[in-house]
Amino acid sequence: MSIEINNESGVEVDESSLQRLTTFALDHLHVHPDAELAILLVDEAAMEQLHVQWMDEPGPTDVLSFPMDELRPGSEDEITPPGLLGDLVICPQVAIAQAQEAGHSPADEMHLLTAHGILHLLGYDHAEPDEEREMFDVQREILVGFTLAERRR
Fold it and tell me: Binding positions for Zn(2+) (predicted)?
C-alpha cells in the first residue's frame, strides 16, 4: 500500500502511528495492497480555505476527504481493485481542540479523524440515520481493532 503523509501543520504528529492505523484500516476493509492514499496535515488557515472552497462553509474543519477512483470496500472473498483511493486533509489544531472537548488524547482524535476520512473515501456517509449507524459501527471496529493490535505490538 502506498500511504504518503505530509505534515504542513506546524504541529508534531506521530506519523508512524497514522501510517499503521491507515494500513490496518485498509486491510480491515479489504482494500487492494496497491491502492494509493495521501494524507495531508494542514494548519487552521489552510483548512479554512479548503473548507470554504470545497464545502462552502466558513471556518476550519477537522477532516476533508477527496476520493479519486471511487473505490469501495472489498470483502473477505474479494478485495477492491488497485487504484487511487484519494486524499485526506486533517487539521491537527482542530483535532487537539476536539480531543480536549471529548476528554481523550489528541492522538486518539487523529486516529478517529483518519479512520473517518478513510471511510468517506470508500463511499461511506452519515447523512441518513442508517448510513450513520453503519459508518460509525465500521469506524468503531477499526479503532478498537487497531488499539488491540497496537497493544500486542
Answer: 116, 120, 126
Query: Has this prediction a pTM greater than 0.90?
Result: yes
Q: Give CA–CA dist 153/140, Å, rounded.
A: 20
Q: Is 28 annotated as a binding residue?
A: no
Name the grid cell of 2: 502506498
* 104 marked as part of a ligand binding site: no
* Residue ranges of domains in the chain: 2-152
The arithmetic mean of pLDDT across residues 93-103, rounded, is 97
CATH superfamily ID and name for 2-152: Metalloproteases ("zincins"), catalytic domain (3.40.390.30)
8 Å CB contact between 139 and 125: no
- How many Cα atoms occupy the beta-carbon half-sphere of 105 within 13 Å? 5
Q: Is 111 annotated as a binding residue?
A: no
H helices then E strands: how many in the chain? 5, 4
